[in-house]
Amino acid sequence: MPSDVLVVGASAAGLAVVESLRRKGYRGRITLLGEESGAPYDRPPLSKQVLAGSWDAERTHLRAPAVLEALETRFVFGERAVSLDVAARTVRTASGRELGAQAVVLATGLHPRRLPGLSGTGGVYVLRTLDDAVRLREELLRAEQTVVIGDGVLGAEIAATARETGQDVTLTGPQAAPMEMQLGADIAERLAALHIGHGVRLRPHTLVQEVTSSQGRITGVRTAGGEILPAGLVVEAVGGVPATDWLAGSGLALEDGVVCDSHCRAAEGVYAAGDVARFHHQALGRSLRLENRTNATEQAQTVAANILGESRAYTPVPYFWTDQLGVRIQVYGLPTPTATVHIAEGDVQEGRFVARYEEAGRPVAVLGWNMPKHARLQRQSLLPLYTSAPHPEPATAMR
Amino acid sequence: MKITVDEEKCCGAGQCVLIAPEVFDQRDDDGIVSLLDATPPADQYDVVRESASVCPAAAIVVSEDA
Question: Tell me: the pLDDT tens digits for A71-129?
Fold first, then answer.
């Protein structure tokens, strides 16, 4: 068992590693290093309650100060990690500080992806941090028209929240319908109808080429098809890039995330958890990187267990939820584009149902549309696929 | 041990029910957490702490000294 642990990244995954270690009775020294200066906060509410203005910033804090204190952890906040020495297991920060431990956990999350040609333009906003959300909220109150670029989960949530606060909002993206990749064509079409029914303007199959402006103010965006969509506020939500830039040259394998084995190990004594971690899912027999909230904590628990010598493979049933325009969607498993979708419970017309995604008669995912409990009860049908006997793991998974 | 849940924060993921079904359930209509036992017996402490830690909405607060 290591005498000390250093966790790099103080968001949901990083904090969960610390909590998990302590809950398992670990008494060694723990340091939690975070780039942002405030208390660790939760991200899912940023595009919902914080953007809507129904929660103040403090309500997003993951733990009360007394709970953090009880973790008996050294919190080093407001310091960015700039390099890792894998062999020595030391991390250097932007201010030149050197932190080391016998076990190091990488949980640095994502940076928002930026479209070339848009970044650096005033009036174009991204949403990743609490500060981003608070700033975007202020802009939303000022703007008359908003264009959201990006039809993934975050873009769809931002458009929904903006619409709920009375904004004139257009949601653009390359897919036929919002979240098609996450939901499949059938259900994404339902989501599109929901947005249209609430007055969100949808521009599917649309790529944005550039921002148009006049006298230093944004006036809209120009699509690849030449259409101008007027906007005083443009939000870019085109996905995230794993925050591994600081690990370049460390010797760790970096391929769309920190490459880990099935036990979330990137190297001897080095682990990764959360959005940044690519791991080998033994039951699926392939590598995965999951960008969702429950993955952050579940993977963190596995990492904590493995730091303490449990040798536990990480084989999650992926799960995410989203709340948009009064509809609560829960997804267990990974819907595939070729899956057949059956309505297993409820009624589509009544706006409450559970859908089952099947490949060759085998369930691969379950979706709840305003039926969270019923969807969760069907999660069980996915266990054979996601927790079945291990597939052989490529020997190169870990360096 | 005393448990409190924040229904407004709860996102209906049901992780707590998967971990500690004797302490937590979900409402049938909207999936929001319902607390079956706010002061559970000692044999439930571990799973309750795990539920609080895993909750993706940080909606479960455990007071240990109550």
Answer: 999 999 999 999 999 999 999 999 999 999 999 999 999 999 998 877 666 789 999 99
- The CB density around residue A82, as the number of other CB atoms within 10 Å, is 15
Q: Which of A23, A44, A376 shows the shortest C-beta gap to B17?
A: A376
Query: Domain spanning A114-238: which CATH class is it, in words?
Result: alpha beta
- Chain A CB contacts of B28 below 8 Å: 373
Q: Do A321 and B12 touch (CB under 8 A)?
A: yes
Beta strands in A49-102 (DSSP E): 74-77, 81-85, 90-93, 98-100
Closest residue to B58, CB basis, from A42, A368, A372: A42
Identify the closest residue of chain A to B47 by CA–CA distance. Answer: A23
> How many residue pairs from chains A and B have C-beta atoms closer than 8 A?
63
pLDDT at residue A120, as a whole number = 63
Residues of A in contact with B47 (CB under 8 A): none
Predicted TM-score (pTM) of this structure: 0.96
Cα separation, A232 vs A219, in Å, equals 6
Residues of B in contact with A294 (CB under 8 A): 13, 15, 54, 56
Interface test with B, best of A54, A327, A373 (most B CBs within 10 A): A373
How many angstroms separate the Cα of A184 from the Cα of each of A101, A158, A200, A345, B10? 44, 20, 20, 18, 26
Q: Would you tell me how many other CB atoms lie within 10 Å of the CB of residue A169?
A: 28
The ipTM (two decimal places) reads 0.94
Q: What is the pLDDT of residue A216?
A: 81
Tell me which residue has tokens 């290591």.
A2
Which listed CATH number (3.40.50.1820, 3.40.640.10, 3.50.50.60, 3.30.70.890) goes with A4-111+241-307?
A: 3.50.50.60
